[in-house]
Design a protein that fits this description.
By secondary structure, this protein is mainly alpha-helical. The protein has nine helices and two strands. The protein is globular.
């Protein structure tokens, strides 16, 4: 396994990185994420920017709407809509504080953390019970057990 410096270069990595779990990247493939709970590309991008500002698990991230808009190239109005959608889908909790002229917002990613933890626990239990059956990867077992929806793709036999 290569290090982040080996992959991205030390000059890039000196500005830091944002660690996100693979289950977040794969969230739309989880069986329980259907229909209205699916995360759009704009929602994922806004979520990643908010997570980039979550540097200490004891403190909530508080990037401004303007900063999120600048990082995502979305309008401030679009960012507000996206945040409302993430709150409605229970991926974030948003708080408005009176600090800094009443304009400071903060966000709790706790609902997302809890959702991913529940999904990981379910996946792990099912995988543990199925591991004795065959010698295949944990991801293959998870797919076979239906934890990830299979997207239609090209038929490898047809190639």
């Amino acid at each position: 396994m290569s290090t982040m410096n080996e992959r991205w270069g030390a000059e890039t990595m000196r500005f830091g990185f944002t660690g996100i779990p693979n289950l977040l990247v794969q969230i739309n493939a989880l069986e329980e994420t259907r229909g209205s709970e699916r995360v759009t590309a704009a929602e994922m991008f806004v979520l990643i920017v908010i997570l980039e500002h979550w540097r200490n698990h004891r403190h909530q991230p508080f990037p401004s709407i303007e900063r999120i808009a600048r990082y995502t190239a979305l309008s401030g109005r679009h960012v507000r809509r996206v945040i409302r959608a993430l709150v409605a889908k229970r991926y974030l909790t948003a708080y408005r504080h009176g600090e800094l002229d009443g304009r400071r917002n903060s966000y709790s990613p706790r609902p997302l953390v809890d959702k991913l933890a529940a999904a990981a626990s379910r996946l792990d239990s099912a995988i543990q019970s199925a591991l004795g059956e065959e010698s295949v990867s944990r991801m293959e077992i998870a797919e076979r057990l239906g934890f990830f929806s299979r997207q239609p793709g090209p038929d490898p036999a047809a190639a």
